[in-house]
Write a structure and sequence with these properties.
Blueprint: E1 6-13, H1 16-29, E2 33-40, E3 44-52, H2 53-67, E4 71-77, H3 84-88, E5 99-105, H4 108-121, E6 125-131, E7 139-145, H5 147-162, E8 167-173
Antiparallel strand pairs: 1-3, 1-4, 2-3, 5-7, 5-8, 6-7
Helix pairs in contact: 1-2, 4-5
């Protein structure tokens, strides 16, 4: 599916049962692509959709309404970077490894916001966005690029979430060893 206006939305709920109902309502409401719908630590349910901006917004609004008091976090991101969705699906193609940046957050919504801001701010390639899968609810993303571009990207990504208190840590590795296997991060 090629997106004319890529947008993503995320809803995280404290109830798995309500999460499944919410996901069903969201995909029935508008023509969106369900990127992910699953349990996440600690005992929550996450729904992630993508599509054209208007459809995603319509689906997101019904999701928030259905989720009601069970919603613990939410995000609607119109005009997302074209790098974001492939990185969330762990299928981004990275031509070569330059400097490596890793940004770790406490929430899924903050990792998506941060990664989007980072790649829009500088000439870097997003490698992967890992969302709360086996991470105790935390999330992180990795990216590569020339050191000066990577530093600017990390700062932009951190700046957008720092005031919310959702940043865990950030690291920049100028010359990562060739044996670093990014799938093990």
């Amino acid at each position: 599916m090629t997106l004319k206006e890529p947008a993503v939305a995320l809803i995280e709920l404290r109830s798995i049962a309500r999460g499944v109902k919410t996901a069903d309502d969201m995909v029935k409401k508008a023509p969106v692509r369900l990127l992910d719908a699953r349990t996440v630590c600690p005992g929550k349910y996450m729904i992630l959709i993508a599509g054209e901006t208007a459809a995603v917004e319509e689906s997101y609004r019904i999701g928030v309404a259905t989720g009601g008091e069970m919603v613990v976090d939410e995000l609607f991101l119109p005009y997302a970077s074209h790098q974001l969705i492939p990185a969330m699906q762990a299928c981004a193609v990275v031509p070569k490894m330059d400097a490596l940046g890793v940004v770790e957050t406490f929430t899924v919504a903050s990792v998506i916001l941060s990664a989007d801001a980072a790649v829009k701010a500088a000439g870097v390639s997003l490698i992967e966005v890992r969302m709360a899968n086996g991470l105790g609810g935390k999330s992180f993303y990795t990216m590569t690029g020339p050191l000066n571009e990577l530093e600017a990207a990390v700062e932009a990504g951190v700046a957008i979430i720092k005031s919310a208190g959702t940043l865990v840590c950030r690291e920049i590795i100028p010359n990562p060893h060739e044996d670093i296997n990014l799938k093990l991060l």
